[in-house]
Amino acid sequence: MVDTLTPSQSKVVEFPYQSNSTLKVVAGPGSGKTLTLLHKVYYLIESGQIAPNEILILSLTNKAVDNVITRLFDVFEQLNEKRTEEQLKEIIGGLEVHTVHGLANRVVIENEGIINVIEENGWRGLMKLVSEDFWKNKRPKIPSIKDFKRLFEQYKNQKTGTKDVVKKLTDIMENCGVVTNEELIDRASRYLNSDVVPESTAQTMEYTRNLKDKIKVVIIDEFQDLYPSLLPLLRRISLGKQLILFGDSNQSIYSFLGSNKEAMNAIEDIHTGRDFHIMHLHDNFRCTPEIMAAATRVIPLKRKEMNDGEIEKVCKDKCGVKPIMQNFSNPLDELEFVRDQISQLVCASAHLSDIAILTRTNNQMQLIADHLQSYGINSHKLTAQPDWMTDSRIQFLIDLMKVISLSHREESLKRENFVNRPWKSDFSLIVTLSALKGATNQSIQILYNECLRHDISLRRYISSVPMSDWPAAVTNKRKISNCVIELQKLMNNGEFLYSDDPMQILQKICTFAHEMGFQMLQPTSHRDAEQFRQHLEDMYIILKLCLTNKPNDMPLVEWFLHTHFEQSLSYYHENPVPRAGSRDVLKISTIHSSKGLEFPIVFLMGGLSWFHSISQLEDNVLYVGMTRAKNLLYLLNTKHPGLDYKSATRNIMSNEKFWRYYNTDLNRDIPADFASAIRRYDCLQRKYDGFSMKRRPFSTLSVAHNNKLMRLIAHIARK
DNA sequence: AGACAGTAAGTTTTT
DNA sequence: CTTACTGTCT
C-alpha cells in the first residue's frame, strides 16, 4: 500500500498508534511532509485503529490547513480505488482540520456565544477612549495603533501602572464580546480545562467535550511555528492522546511571536514521563543540488551537519545553474532587472505561473505588483486573506452593519423584557463614532462615561437623552446625534436588515456612510478609489454567496455578519484568481506566506535597498525563501555571511542545457527551436520600449502611500 | 531652553 | 540608511 513512499516515510506512516505518546517527525524542505502526514492519517483509519472523527489536525496558518484539505481527497482517492466518492467524502468530512486559532474560536463560541476578534478599527476606537495623559512618559510620543496594542498587552500582563485605564478598556471588550487573539487562546484553554461542565449546558457543549474525550490522535503540522502562549491549550488538547508533530526547526520563521525555541523544547515533553519518539525525513525531492547547497550554507547548524556528513539527500540531478545573485543600489534598477529577467524566462520555456517573487514585506509586494502591472504583466498575490477583507474601509462598513444589527437585536430583546446588559452594540458604535469627523476623543469619552453612569447603552443615550442634557464638554453634539438617528432609521427600515437583495444592502450602507462623510472612507487618490470599488465588488460577491447558503430563518445581513469571514476564506481558497483576465499570471508573496509552497523559479527580494547597505534577512527566513525554489533561484539584494557573492550571472535565456533540464523536470515537451526565444525576446523588448518613463505615470511606478520610495527617487533624481 | 551626539528599530500572522 | 527618541552638555 505504501510502496510509493520512501523507507523513512513508510516508517513514519506505519508507526503504531499508542495513546499518551509523542512522535516528532522532522521533515526538511521538499521531503514530502504533507504527503506523509496524509498517508499517516489514512493508515490510522484504514488499519481500523482510529475513526476519522477521532483525529484532529492542527496548524498555525490558514495556508497550511488549506494545503492539507486540498490534498486530502487526492491522496485518499489514490490510496483506495475501492471506495466510492461518497464514502471518501464521509471519511474526510469526519476529520477535524483547523488552525489553532480557528479551533479556539469554535470552543469559545460554543461556550459563550458569538465573539469577535478585535481588528485595526477596533483598536483605533479603543485608543480614542484613553486620555492624553495615558501617553505621558511613554515610549513613542506620537503613538500608532500598533504601539497602543503593544502597550495594552503589556499593561494587561503586568497589572501595574495605568491599571484602571486598561481595566476600563477590557471591561468594554468583555461586555461587547470582543477579544484579542491572545485572549481567544486563553479562553479556549480555560474552557477545555474546566472539567466541571454545568449539567444544564452539558448537552450543548458537545464540541468542547469531543475535543477532550473523543479525539485520540492530535497531529500538529508545522510544529516549528508554535509559540509559548499556545502551549497551555495544546497541552490540554493532547492530554492522554497520541501527539504527532510534523515540521522542521530550520523553517521556524515566527520567532517574533515569542521564543519558539522554548516552545519547541516544551512541546517535546508536553506531558512529563511520556513515550517520545523522533524520526527524520531526510530526502529532498524539490530543489536542485545547487539551490540546496546554497541554502544549506545559510544556516550555521546545517553547515556543521554537512561537515559531519549528515546532510539531506537531494534527489534531483544537477541542473548546472547556481543561484543568481545580484545587488542594486537603486530600487528602480532592481525592479527593471526583475522585469527583464521575467521577459527572458518567459521567452525561453518558462510559464508566467512558474515564477514566484518572494518579498519580505507586504509593502514590497505591492510595489512589485504595481511595477509589473505597469508593463502589463499580471500577478496574483498569495496573501493569507483576500485583499478586500483586510481593507479597513470595508471593515468599517461591516462595523456599521454590526451596529445596526446588534442595536436591532437589543431593541427586540428589550421589548420582550429581557435583561438589557451588556450592550454589544457599544463597541461597534464607538468605532463608528470615532471615525466621524468632528467627534473628538474627549466627547466620546465623556459620552461613554455618562452611559456607564446611567446604565444605558451608548446608542440609547444618544438617541433618547436630549442634546441639551448632555455634558457641556461634548462638542459637535448635532453631528453625533444625527449619525445615531440615521443609524436608527436604517435599523427600523426592513429594507435593510431583512433585505434579501445584496445590492440593496450594500447600497444602503454605502449611502449612509457617504452622507455621514466619514473621513476614513475618503479616497486619497484615483488609485485608492479604484481599489475601494474593487473591494466593494468582492464584498458583494460574498454577500451573494451568503444568500445562496443562508438558513431560511435568518436574515441575510445577520448571516453575513456571522459567517463572512469563513465564507470568504473558503471562497478565496476555491477561486484563487477570481479576477485575473488571463490564467497565466505570476505569483507574488511574502516569504512568510510562501511557506509550504514550491515554485520552479523564485525571485527572492532581500529588500528593495532603501539603504545603501543591503538588508540581511534572518537565517531561517532566508532558508525558507531559498528552499521554495525547485529549479532556478534569484537572490536580489540579499546579504548573508554564508553566501558567496562571486557567482557569475549567466545568460539564462540561451542556456539550452538548463532549459532541457527544466522542461524534463516539469514533465513538459522540450522545445525544438531555442533560437526563437531570442527572437521573441527582441520583439517583447521593442514593445516595452514603447512604455517610456514619460508615458508611465509616476503613480503607477511607485505607490502613492509609499512615501519612502518617493523620497528615495527624489533623492536619486537630485544626484 | 537649545544644540549635539549616541542609540535602537524598521518586518513577518492568527478570526 | 532614516526616523524618533534619549541623554548630556552648555
Automatic annotation (TrEMBL):
The keyword ATP-binding applies. This is DNA 3'-5' helicase. One of its GO terms (biological process) is recombinational repair. Keywords: ATP-binding, Helicase, Hydrolase, Isomerase, Nucleotide-binding. Residues 6-288 form the UvrD-like helicase ATP-binding domain. The keyword Iron does not apply. ATP binds at A27, G28, P29, G30, S31, G32, K33, T34. It catalyses: Couples ATP hydrolysis with the unwinding of duplex DNA by translocating in the 3'-5' direction; ATP + H2O = ADP + phosphate + H(+). Residues 289-596 form the UvrD-like helicase C-terminal domain. InterPro entries: DNA_helicase_UvrD-like_C, DNA_helicase_UvrD/REP, P-loop_NTPase, UvrD-like_ATP-bd. One of its GO terms (molecular function) is 3'-5' DNA helicase activity. GO terms for cellular component: nucleus. Gene3D superfamilies: P-loop containing nucleotide triphosphate hydrolases, PCRA, domain 4. It is an enzyme of class 5 (isomerase). It comes from the Eukaryota. Its EC number is 5.6.2.4.
